[in-house]
Design a protein that fits this description.
- The protein is 31% helix and 26% strand.
- By secondary structure, the chain is an alpha/beta fold.
- The chain has a domain of 177 residues: P-loop containing nucleotide triphosphate hydrolases (Rossmann fold), CATH 3.40.50.
- A 6-stranded mixed beta sheet has the order 6-7-8-3-9-10, sandwiched between helices. The protein has a 4-stranded antiparallel beta sheet with strand order 2-1-4-5, with helices on one face. The chain has a two-stranded antiparallel sheet with strand order 11-12.
- The radius of gyration is 19 Å and the shape is globular.
């Protein structure tokens, strides 16, 4: 087996007296979509923010390409190749696609930006991801549909040479057509670009369409991390709601066995 691009071992995180993550182990491999699912308050957002360097972990280890690392902030995570696409997308409606993709990372001096280079890079990135619904990279983001906005936000993450992309509810509030387009794009990130993709979603149907593995958080504990083909939607729902499904998940209190 090749070395995982990202690996978490026994990660814990508390906010005051509330322990949000409890000894979480998670492995992300290149070319694989890992769905991270769990109920509200399960710890999904906190785990993502720990990976992204927004929250420091209290204990545990994080390995990048087999080497121990510590992210003291989002810049450290970005330098490794970790990018996060949050649910609100963090796009500026009054700017066009190129300006959004290079926002804060513009090429050239402030008085003479290299517009041609940035425009070409934006076109190339979108073409590499087979995004065909965007006709012009100079289109203001305010004029884009929800699916197009997601595509731009994902392309922005890929533009900077990312190796792991974390997607927070990328299909939330999208219709059937845009959802299919975004899920196709997520698959291409892993299958064609070779990235490690973490997909946070409450939509179990979407998860089974696109994920190679499913990791389930329950009250801060990772209770399952298995290939999608070894799980059923009913099992995943049971793991999300009770932390247990048959022999999977938390130990049964009556026997103490898994």
């Amino acid at each position: 087996m090749t070395t995982p691009i990202l690996e978490l071992k026994a990660v814990n995180k508390s906010f005051g007296p509330v322990q949000v993550l409890r000894d979480v182990d998670l492995t992300i491999r290149r070319g694989t979509v890992t769905a991270l699912v769990g109920d509200n308050g399960a710890g999904k957002s906190t785990l993502v923010k720990c990976i992204a360097g927004i929250h420091p972990t209290d204990s545990g280890e994080i390995f990048w390409d087999g080497e121990p690392v510590r992210c003291n902030g989002p810049r450290d995570a970005a330098a490794l190749g970790i990018e996060v696409v949050y649910q609100d997308l963090a796009l500026a409606d009054n700017l066009d696609i190129v300006q959004n993709m290079f926002l804060g990372r513009e090429r050239g001096p402030a008085w003479a930006l290299d517009e041609a280079s940035m425009e070409q890079a934006a076109r190339t990135t979108l073409a590499t991801l087979s995004v065909r619904t965007v006709t012009s990279v100079r289109t203001p983001v305010a004029a884009l549909s929800g699916g197009q906005r997601q595509a731009v936000a994902i392309a922005k993450a890929v533009l900077w040479g990312s190796k792991v992309v974390l997607l927070d509810e990328p299909t939330a509030a999208l219709g059937v057509g845009p959802t299919r387009q975004v899920l196709d794009l997520v698959r291409r990130l892993a299958a064609e670009q070779g990235l490690g993709v973490v997909l946070i979603s409450h939509n179990i149907a979407d998860v089974f369409k696109v994920a190679d593995r499913i990791a389930v958080l329950y009250l801060g504990r990772l209770v399952a991390d298995l290939p999608t083909r070894e799980l059923t939607p009913i099992q995943v729902v049971e793991l999300i709601t009770t932390g247990r499904s048959g022999e999977l998940g938390l130990p049964r209190p009556d026997t103490g066995t898994l």
